[in-house]
Write a structure and sequence with these properties.
With 252 residues, the chain is of the alpha+beta class. Helices cover 19% and strands 31% of the residues. It has an eight-stranded mixed barrel with strand order 1-2-3-8-6-5-4-9.
């Protein structure tokens, strides 16, 4: 299981200073779908967090653990064999390309990629892929390329970042792990955040999920202020509702 600060990971590691990884630094990527957030990690160090768009409810982004196996710089847009793309035509690299400046392959027909539709970031808007702002997609690709292609010369990577015209696909020497999660409750740095059920999965009531998360982090459930919990999970904002952990607990 990939280490992260998310609820299911147990004890939360502390965030440390953000630095670009060296070629010896193992990198992994974590996406929390209802939080519309992607994070790049090296061991337990958070390198960067990015807002994303995820798949819409009728085209859900997959959940689970995968590997990023290749990167396409200045990709062509090749419409998939799906009804929603029936009238689409292939599109070469350029500012209007749906894939943006770069796409990272982690599962057939599912990618991490840039987008010209930056207004969609922070929502469920794609056909299953994870969209990023183009600047963020390039930063992510740089992290992953460094980690997955340790023998690549710095000059070659620099050329990939600056070239906006020529398409090039590079298979990683070392696949980079990615985990797509669906955590509606997060506890980190003394703050509890809850998120909407963007895919309508239902399941256990959010209150129960919150109490379980508190218990996993070692807090006495008997000290929880149920009125504060009710207020926290009522009318959840699109970006989630957050409250200091201390406000949820009645200390004796």
């Amino acid at each position: 299981m990939i280490a992260s600060l998310l609820v299911a990971a147990g004890v939360s590691p502390r965030e440390r200073a953000v630095h670009a990884p060296t070629t010896e630094t193992p990198v992994h990527v974590v996406v929390n779908i209802p939080a519309f957030r992607l994070e790049v990690w090296a061991h337990d160090t958070l390198l960067r967090a990015m807002r994303v768009a995820v798949g819409m409810r009728s085209f859900k982004s997959p959940r689970g653990e995968f590997d990023i196996t290749s990167i396409e710089w200045n990709p062509w847009w090749i419409p998939p064999n799906s009804a929603w793309a029936a009238k689409q035509r292939p599109m070469p690299p350029g500012p209007n390309n749906p894939m943006g400046r770069v796409k990272l392959n982690f599962r057939p027909l599912y990618y991490l990629h840039g987008t010209p539709l930056e207004h969609s970031i922070g929502s469920a808007a794609s056909h299953g892929c994870i969209r990023l702002r183009n600047d963020d997609a390039l930063a992510l690709a740089e992290f992953v390329q460094r980690a997955g292609s340790p023998t690549m010369a710095a000059s070659e990577l620099a050329a990939l970042l600056t070239d906006t015209q020529h398409s090039r696909r590079i298979r990683l020497e070392q696949p980079v792990p990615i985990e797509l999660r669906y955590d509606r409750v997060e506890i980190r740095d003394g703050v509890v955040t809850v998120y909407r059920d963007v895919y309508g999965f239902g399941g256990r009531p959010l209150r129960d999920q919150l109490l379980t998360a508190l218990g996993q982090h070692g807090y006495d459930i008997g000290l929880v202020d149920t009125a504060q919990v009710s207020a926290l999970i009522r009318h959840i904002d699109a970006k989630g509702n957050a409250v200091p952990l201390a406000r949820l607990l009645r200390f004796r």
